[in-house]
Specification:
Low-confidence stretches: none
Number of helices: 14
Mean pLDDT: 95
Structural class: alpha+beta
Number of domains: 4
Distance between the termini: 43 Å
Strand order of the largest sheet: 3-2-1-4-5
CATH topology of the largest domain: D-amino Acid Aminotransferase, Chain A, domain 1
Largest sheet: 5 strands, parallel
Length: 419
């Protein structure tokens, strides 16, 4: 099987790495990829970017892949999966209409209501008077979300009415609307569910760290680290989420005539009243993918191809490594605001099966040196017999990385590991 992976982040590097271990996968191409992916796969430029359907289809026609895997949300919402399917390719990733589960939080809430999925009470607002009324109705802490895509940074959770209103005004100024929700208390869990539009196959749950600073301080980011498994998660959690959330949502999307095939990312809060959905995403999450795929024993290419062609019900049960995995993100100066780029990177290890680096915001400069090119630069993955060992392995890599004025969280998985 030949596979083409669309994207350029650490998530895509993790996907490529996992595909390379599948004996059924003979070759992996990536577009545009990154310097880390280029070490293990053939990378191809996309002058128009990952959302340029014509360019992606043209590349696919040149390469002739048996499967195309779309990593990021932007090309999915832009309809790249539709264009590839229309051209006759097997695609892992939902249609543009189905990807509105991530592209519009208001739409996702509408689907959840129709499918009787437990989630937060919400108000969709298009002007400041509606926001003020919604904030009064929900009370603090206030949760205000950009209705559209925001690269994981479109949510503000605050006790300040002024901060909540300012965020809403920023969304309005950009031409969007906002969703104001009641705050959901309790630990958060990410669960990826592979689906072909009928069958739902859950992966192992993970926990993501969204805030930029230790102790969950500072603004939201795209994610500063993650770990799996979750030793504190209640028994039966995955089965409950599939039966109460994922399967009803997939069934509702099919009933609407917009079947969802790909990965449904379910972001949950484990509230005192039970699991409640915080958000849906229409693709693998970053950085959770880095730890979940590190633990998956099943051949990834075979699994994703089965989802793409409607044959998930014929797949064997998933098998997971007993080891734990932790990833820590090394970020550029300025992230999650305007990141500084162009700084030289050093100290990257050779890597092995227990500790390795996945590239995110990296590039080669004119002299061929590895430099930073984005906010989240590297994802350092450690694997060990338990979370404490995996955490230690990840941080050994982080400590060896040299990137001027970079920053990272020091508390990823600390509480769960008992450190």
């Amino acid at each position: 099987m030949k596979v083409l992976v669309i994207g350029s982040g650490a998530r895509e590097h993790a996907i490529v790495r996992a595909l390379q271990t599948d004996p059924e996968v003979a070759a992996v191409d990536a577009a545009p990829g990154n310097p880390g992916i280029a070490e293990v796969a053939t990378c191809h430029g996309l002058d128009g970017g990952v959302a340029d359907s014509d360019a992606v289809v043209q590349l696919a026609r040149q390469l002739g892949p048996d499967l195309v895997v779309i990593g990021p949300e932007v090309p999915l919402v832009a309809g790249v999966a539709d264009a590839l399917r229309d051209a006759g390719f097997a695609v892992f990733g939902p249609s543009a209409q189905a990807a509105q589960l991530e592209g519009s939080k208001a739409f996702a809430k509408e689907v959840m209501a129709a499918a009787d999925v437990p989630t937060a009470r919400c108000y969709v607002c298009s002007e400041s008077g509606q926001v003020a009324a919604a904030l009064e109705a929900t009370g603090a802490p206030y949760v205000v979300k950009d209705d559209g895509l925001a690269a994981g940074k479109g949510v503000v959770v605050t006790d300040s009415v002024d901060e909540a209103m300012d965020h809403a005004q920023g969304c309005f100024a950009a031409g969007g609307s906002v969703v104001v929700e009641e705050f959901l208390s309790g630990p958060e869990v990410s669960l990826f569910c592979i689906t072909d539009g009928f069958t739902v196959v859950p992966l192992a749950p993970a926990q993501d760290f969204k805030r930029v600073g230790d102790g969950d301080e500072g603004p939201n980011t795209g994610g500063m680290g993650a770990y799996s498994p979750l030793p504190w998660a209640p028994d039966g959690l995955v089965d409950e989420v599939v039966s109460r959330v994922a399967q009803p949502t997939i069934d509702e999307m099919r009933r609407r005539g917009t079947p969802f095939a790909g990965v449904l990312y379910v972001g949950l809060a484990l509230t005192p009243a039970g699991p409640r959905v915080i958000e849906f995403n229409a693709r693998f999450g970053d950085p959770e993918t880095q730890v979940v795929l590190a633990r998956l024993r099943n051949p990834l290419g075979v699994l994703l191809h089965a989802a793409a062609v409607g044959a998930l019900d014929q797949q064997p049960p998933l098998v997971w490594r007993e080891e734990a995995a932790v990833t820590v993100v090394v970020a550029s100066e300025g992230y999650p605001g305007t990141p500084r780029t162009g700084d030289v990177l050093g100290g990257l290890p050779e890597g092995d099966d227990t500790a390795y680096v996945l590239h995110a915001g990296t590039a080669r400069d004119d002299a061929g040196a590895l430099v930073s090119s984005g906010g989240r630069v590297l994802s350092c993955v450690g694997i060990g017999p338990d979370l404490a060992a995996a955490r230690a392995a990840a941080y050994r890599i982080v400590d060896g990385i040299s990137l001027a004025d970079s920053h990272h969280r020091t508390d990823i998985a600390r509480t769960a590991a008992g450190d």
